[in-house]
Model the fold of this input.
Amino acid sequence: MDKIGLFFGPVGGNCNNVATKVAEQIGNNKVDLIPIKDAKHSDVEKYDKIIFGISSLGKDAWDNEDTETDWDKFLPEFNKIDFTGKTIAAFGLGNQITYPSHFVESLGFLAHELASKGVKLVGEFPTTGFEYQESHAVNENGNFYGLVVDEDNEKEKTDERIKAWLPSIKDAFGF
Ligand SMILES: Cc1cc2nc3c(=O)[nH]c(=O)nc-3n(C[C@H](O)[C@H](O)[C@H](O)COP(=O)(O)O)c2cc1C
Done:
């Protein structure tokens, strides 16, 4: 089987921990874990099966504030990626207590950027069990575009959330 490319950012925090857990649950031998900040578009294009991991860091776009996140740095490369024939899934981190009106915003932004390039994410995730007011990460079916976890408030639920999500991408990803 071709390996899955799991591209995530930022490095060294909660998103990194969740990326590690997702890779462990799929099987470390089946996944390459790659920080997004160091990635070139050609690194992403090497993979036909790709998972993106992103933390919500208070923006509704990647390049509209002074501070640069890892995903901001990656944006010029992202825009060059040829997504033809790729299977893509994503997970997002957010904080439903502190940011109830913008919950897991970055996942929504990523999904919308991908949609503008003709990519429909596989592996939507139910919103059940989360308490928030608004989120742009909810799709037309009323589900999140991908796996959502809240490491700040519900760290103890992360393992079970990953476990519940993986079957929804298993067939498409072939693991
Ligand atoms: C400056 C800042 C802004 C944030 N903005 C949002 C937000 O708009 N929506 C949300 O759901 N979470 C938001 N969060 C919460 C983070 O997504 C959450 O703490 C996440 O676990 C951080 O992951 P990291 O350690 O990989 O950066 C924000 C956190 C920080 C520090």
Summary: The first strand starts at residue 4 and ends at 9. The mean pLDDT is 94. Residues 4-173 form a domain with the Rossmann fold fold (CATH 3.40.50.360). Residues 14-26 form the longest helix (13 residues).
